[in-house]
Amino acid sequence: MNLTDFKNTILPIKNKLFRFALRIVSDPAEAEDVVQEVFIKLWKVLEKGEIIENAEAWCMRATRNQAIDKLRSKHKRVEALDDKYDQKDKSASPFQMASMKDTLQHIKNFINQLPEKQKLVMHLRDIEGHTYKEISDTLDLPLGQVKVNLFRARQTIRTKLLKSKIVELG
Q1: Which residue from 31, 32, 46, 161 could staple onto 21, CB 3.0 to 4.6 Å apart?
Q2: Is 128 helix (H, G, I), strand (E, B) or coil?
Q3: What is the topology classification, in CATH, of domain 92-169?
Q4: Cβ(107)–Cβ(157) under 8 Å?
Q5: What SS3 class is residue 129?
């Protein structure tokens, strides 16, 4: 792969890799470092003449591994999603906007309480929009395990959200 192919094929996914790394390391500077290190590794692999069938899946897996290594070396924990992922509805009333923001904060807190695999599967599927197969390749999990983790994560969040709304309303 030459530099032009690299720019056309790999660079368009840099933001996706950054968001994924950020989800794991919770620090924008560290997430940038992770992505840069992944690109360097990929370039070295391609320079050796190795063939990568699915470059995006390879990069996602490498990003996951690099981010986890960075976490282990720093002894940090994964924290909440940044507010830049919040989607605001301009036509909503102030009450509705406050309610949506509160609900989103509950969901973020519930996601952070999930087991690590469920958290990562949910991020890749519901935030990044990856297919089950891509998630399976990225996280090195069987396809059935991806579906089970996603189902359990969604079920847990749904249950906790309903319980929190009952407590708030009751």
Answers
A1: 31
A2: coil
A3: Arc Repressor Mutant, subunit A (1.10.10)
A4: yes
A5: coil
Cβ neighbour number for residue 112 with a 10 Å cutoff: 14
Is the pTM above the cut of 0.85? Answer: no
pLDDT at 32: 92
> Cα 45 to chain center, whole Å?
24
Q: HEC states along 72-119?
A: HHHCCCCCCCCHHHCCCCCCCCHHHHHHHHHHHHHHHHHHHHCCHHHH
Judge whether residue 151 has pLDDT over 90.
yes
Fold exhibited by the domain 3-74: Rna Polymerase Sigma Factor; Chain: A (1.10.1740)
Kind and range of the H or E run holding 126: none
Taking the CA atoms of residue 52, residue 60, residue 133 and residue 114 in that order, the dihedral angle to the nearest 10 degrees is: 160
Rounded distance between C-alpha atoms, residue 119 and residue 117, angstroms: 5
